[in-house]
Write a structure and sequence with these properties.
The structure holds 2 protein chains of 2 kinds. Chain A is α/β, with parallel strands linked by helices. Chain A has 6 helices and 15 strands. A 9-stranded mixed sheet of chain A has the order 11-10-9-12-8-1-6-7-13, sandwiched between helices. In chain A, strands 2-5 form a two-stranded antiparallel sheet. In chain A, strands 3-4 form a two-stranded antiparallel ribbon. In chain A, helix 2 packs across helix 5 and helix 3 packs across helix 4. Chain B folds into 2 domains: 155 residues, Rossmann fold; 120 residues, 3-Layer(aba) Sandwich (Rossmann fold). In chain B, the strands form 3 sheets. In chain B, strands 5-9-4-1-2-3-10 form a 7-stranded parallel sheet, with helices on both faces. Chain B has a 5-stranded parallel sheet with strand order 13-12-14-15-16. In chain B, strands 6-7-8 form a 3-stranded antiparallel sheet, with no helix packed on it. In chain B, strand 12, helix 5 and strand 13 form a beta-alpha-beta unit. The longest helix of chain B has 14 residues. The chains are: A alpha/beta, B alpha/beta. Chains A and B meet through helix 3, helix 4, strand 9, strand 10 and strand 11 of A and helix 3, helix 4, strand 7, strand 8 and strand 11 of B. Strand 11 of chain A pairs antiparallel with strand 11 of chain B, so a sheet runs across the interface.
Chain lengths: 257, 301
């Protein structure tokens, strides 16, 4: 019995630079485990300990996703082992491609009853990869999950939904996206970091996974999104009453108020 | 005739998708995974056909993603639209996987050519924009809009067998009423700069003086839990476009700003003069929010 944590080794787009022609350069941005994924690691470890399952990390991406820094960062977060699928063409791959490769890798890992993910990647933020993966595995996907109990194959899932919460029972394999507020993510300690070096990483051959070809599409244009022109009037609030009066007067003068 | 399909899990507010489909031309077909009341609302919202999977019973609607994907794949439309809600995303992703089709979000324009679909959309959380030419079906996840109106069309019921591996055992409705920030004309949002939960009262007073809704950045709703999740604005939260947006103690991280970039006028209050939000505002006050916010409230009296 295995639980897979599918995570992304990603750049924070806050640190990306966008050229006038719309080309995004993340070359100088810090890479890390995508901001919303650590909760999935922690929830996976907890569930694996409670049920005796093996916790396997899975990451798909460009060559950086299997760098020694990426491996250590993942393996120090409680995984028993790590599986990576890397290829230059998978760098910044679109959601359908990434989801399809993840599904193929989960099938290859085998004996998996549960895949955990974060609810969005910090870089692309598309929020579709878990459902693409689930669709191709033929499993249901549940998002916004705040609590898990029971064992994979007989799993109690609590999730947020519009206007309240819902409890679901999964009697088969399922892809679960953990809401960012489900658990306070644990920060790996020295022992975790030292132990990471002794854990195994398996690199799957992307070509051998034979992921179906996708509908052909090409990027035919790029641009920097047009931002609204702003007044940009910033004033010192050393005298709060005067600053507030000035801003309120300006809002009234421009009929915003 | 070109068919445009709309995927509906359980939320009938799709008028934005209907307008998008109408701009493209062709027949609009909605496939509904939710209950009959949802199918009925959709049937009267301006679409040409409604295909309904029957009562979901104890099956969560998104567990019907495979059945929805089967139906849509058989019809082979060139464009499929879905609203950006969690359950609709599950349907959209499963279909994109089935079709091997690109799934695009934060879309600003869609155009049909003889042999391709041309889509312009934001990428990398909104820092850049790209236009793609897709030679095949494309799945588009878009802002939903409101419940539309139109002449009711008949509901075509099909039998869908979902895998019985996922069942709803309990639903708890929250006692607090849900807010729809998408329609708010004025919003006061607060972020990490708020040192103490008690100071929320200052922000609420300002919102009252402005007749505005209170909103927040991600850490205050998820993590601290000082405000409810439906008040969180950002990439994975609400997207708003008010006339006036007052951001208090929010530095202006991209993940937040993407959710409110369309605001007509932006006022920023922050103690850090280097906060990136000051570069994207109409009016900014550099100062302690505990002093500046009550001063703003007083100035409005």
């Amino acid at each position: 019995m295995k639980i897979v944590v599918a995570f992304k080794w990603a750049a924070n787009p806050q640190e990306a630079t966008v050229a006038a022609d719309g080309t995004v350069d993340v070359g100088r941005a810090t890479l890390g485990i995508s901001e919303y994924d650590p909760q999935a690691f922690d929830e996976g470890r907890r569930l694996a300990d409670a049920t005796g399952a093996e916790l396997v990390g899975l990451s798909v991406g460009g060559p950086a996703a299997t760098s020694s820094m990426a491996r250590k960062a993942a393996l120090s977060r409680g995984l028993d082992s790590l599986v990576t699928v890397t290829d230059p063409s998978l760098d910044d791959a679109a959601a359908t491609r990434t989801g399809a490769v993840l599904a193929a890798a989960v099938a290859q890992i085998g004996d998996v009853d549960l895949v955990l993910t974060g609810d969005a990647s910090v870089d692309l933020g598309v929020q579709l990869v878990p459902s693409v993966m689930a669709g191709l595995l033929g499993w249901p996907a549940v998002s916004q999950v705040t609590a898990l109990s029971g064992t994979p194959g007989d799993l109690r899932i609590e999730r947020n939904q519009e206007g309240g919460t819902q409890v679901l029972l999964a009697s088969g394999p399922v892809v679960v996206s953990i809401a960012a507020d489900a658990v306070e993510p644990r920060i790996p300690g020295m022992k975790d970091i030292l132990g990471a070096g002794r854990k195994q990483t398996t690199e799957l051959d992307y070509a051998a996974l034979s992921v179906e070809p996708l509908v052909a599409y090409a990027v035919v244009g790029r641009a920097r999104p047009e931002l609204k022109a702003r007044q940009g009037k910033v004033i010192d609030g050393a005298d709060p009453a005067a600053a507030a009066a000035e801003v309120v007067a300006a809002l009234r003068a421009t009929h915003v108020l | 005739m070109t068919e445009i399909w709309i995927l509906v899990a359980a939320n009938p507010a799709i008028d934005n998708l209907v307008s998008r489909g109408r701009e493209l031309g062709g027949q609009l077909v909605a496939v509904v995974a939710g209950d009959r009341s949802c199918a009925e609302a959709i049937a009267a919202s301006g679409v040409d056909r409604v295909v309904w999977l029957g009562e979901p019973g104890a099956t969560p609607v998104e567990a019907r993603a495979a059945a929805v994907a089967d139906l849509v794949a058989e019809a082979a439309p060139r464009v499929v639209l879905a609203a950006s809600h969690p359950a609709e995303r599950v349907l959209a992703g499963a279909l994109a996987g089935r079709l091997g089709a690109p799934a695009l979000t934060m879309v600003s324009s869609v155009r049909l050519e003889a042999d391709a679909v041309i889509v312009t959309h934001a990428t990398f959380g909104g820092v850049a924009e790209e236009t793609v030419r897709v030679e095949g079906p494309v799945v588009i996840v878009d802002e939903c809009g409101s419940v539309g109106t139109g002449l009711p069309v008949p509901i075509e019921e099909v039998t869908a067998t979902a895998p019985p591996t996922l069942t709803v055992v309990e639903t708890r409705m929250s006692s607090t009423t849900r807010v729809d920030l998408g329609k708010a004309r004025r919003v006061v949002a607060v972020g990490r700069g708020l040192a103490r939960r008690e100071d929320l009262a200052l922000v609420e007073e300002l919102a009252r003086a402005l007749d505005a809704e209170v909103a927040c950045s991600r850490p205050l709703a998820e993590g601290l839990g000082w405000l409810s999740r439906d008040r969180y604005i950002g990439v994975t939260g609400q997207h708003v476009h008010p006339d006036l947006y007052v951001a208090v103690g929010i530095s202006g991280q991209l993940q937040h700003v993407v959710g409110c970039r369309d605001a007509s006028t932006v006022v920023v209050v922050n103690c850090d003069a280097k906060a990136p939000y000051f570069g994207e505002c109409d009016y900014g006050i550099v100062g302690d929010l505990a002093q500046v916010v009550p001063a703003l409230t007083a100035a409005l009296a």
